[in-house]
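#onboarding

Welcome to the new folks! Below is a worked example of what a typical request in this channel looks like: someone posts a single protein sequence, and someone else replies with the predicted structure as tokens. Don't worry about understanding the tokens yet, we'll cover that in week two.

Example request:
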Amino acid sequence: MENVEQLAKMEEDVEAAFKRHQSIMPQVKQEYDKVIGQVFADLSPSDLQAFSDILLEHEDSVLDTEELVNTMRTQMTTVLGKMNQFFFDKNDVENKLVTLEVLKEKFAPYEGKDWNSLSPEELTRPLRMRLLDSSIRFMERQLEAQQKDLEISMAKSKANRERLQTVQNERVKLTAKMEQQTAQYKDIRQLLELQHSINNSYLPPEN
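Example response:
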């Protein structure tokens, strides 16, 4: 029982540490964005002076190097930012950075200790497994929430389909009733015409 309680306590500590270090990602992202924004900061109109001279000589055209440099700087910075974001998303950098911070925190007391008895992988395996379990449980909760949303959506969709089917059925019934009434009107008109014809047959001929 004591071991179970200790294990539960350790899992709670790990989950708390994981949540505590979630804020590192916005900080890292902000630093990357800052550096990316400075990559092309030294690009100047003089870098395009050679192209400007060629255009002026051969095409008698003046190149607005100031505007072109600003446009190039903006576009290249945007492209580089998208490439960096793709790298972060593709390699799950956010979770890996948080995990690294948690490991650094948990093993800070062992800094400078002799690691020769056990490899770092062996020493960190229990904690890494608990982190993995926590991540799996978090994803399971997300899947459960998504499943509930899906069930609600399916129930609404089913109700809408039933409502539409009811409307369709009523429409078919109404169409059939209208056709029946139209047929009755035709029969009545034919009877009236027949009656009129019979009555005319008994009338004396006109002089």
